[in-house]
Amino acid sequence: MNNSYDSVGRYIDLLKKVLTASIYDESGWAVKDPNNKNAVLNQLKKKNLYLVEAKVFNEAERAEGRDWPLFGYTMAGHQRLDNVQLCVEQVIKNNIPGDFVETGSWRGGMTIFMRALLDVYGVSDRFVWVADSFEGLPVPADENDGLDLSQVDYLKVSLEQVKANFEKFNLLDDQVKFLKGWFADTLPTAPIKDIAILRLDGDLYSSTMDSLENLYPKVSKGGFVIVDDYNSWPACKRAVTEYLAAHSIIPDIQKIDWTAVYWQV
Length: 265
Known about the structure:
Elements: H1 7-20, E1 30-31, H2 39-46, E2 52-53, H3 59-63, H4 77-93, E3 99-103, H5 109-120, E4 128-132, H6 159-168, E5 176-180, H7 183-186, E6 195-200, H8 205-215, E7 219-227, H9 234-246, E8 254-255, E9 261-264
Parallel strand pairs: 3-4, 3-6, 4-5, 6-7
Antiparallel strand pairs: 1-2, 7-9, 8-9
Helix pairs in contact: 1-5, 4-5, 8-9
């Protein structure tokens, strides 16, 4: 495989622009008060009305996933999409066994991208697993678990909506599997045998640790682990550090952008 700018390359680049919404002139617009702290704006939301601030689109911020896009299907930004493409292509090229798993999907953009890449490269023997509460973030277990964003409506995307998003790209099929619920409840019994790519985007310490304890042992040799919130959520980084230390794992952790990292198992 190569990244030459042929028809496949153009399709993949276009997909990244659509998934991040960076293709639209209005892409910099933002909903005022996404954290639900303004009483007046909350009253508007009850009537399905939102106050939107028209901002100039900052391509550099979107590339690094530093903003929350009003449109689009992922907050991850282009650099993290590039990383997933790299990992998918390496896994396929080197015949690393296993499925692709993301814990924490929001609108499903990253897993839509994973499924699209399997389609592009004609891979029909791997699944993409979308694990999420589909109800937003949980309430932190305690003050050390991380920020409480459990009431942020912007982060709450239903399973039905995520499935509809897959359908918009004609990518909802039997190769896409959904695990609905809190990770502590769904991951211990998840019917996943081998994992080639494990992408963690659970933010909290508890969510990250639940993902690692239940899924890391299933990652194949030569597979990849990606941690979206490693350098932006201290609780997430602490969970990763503690898990690796407890299992005497010393990976070569590589930086993706300002927050995300990955390594090869």
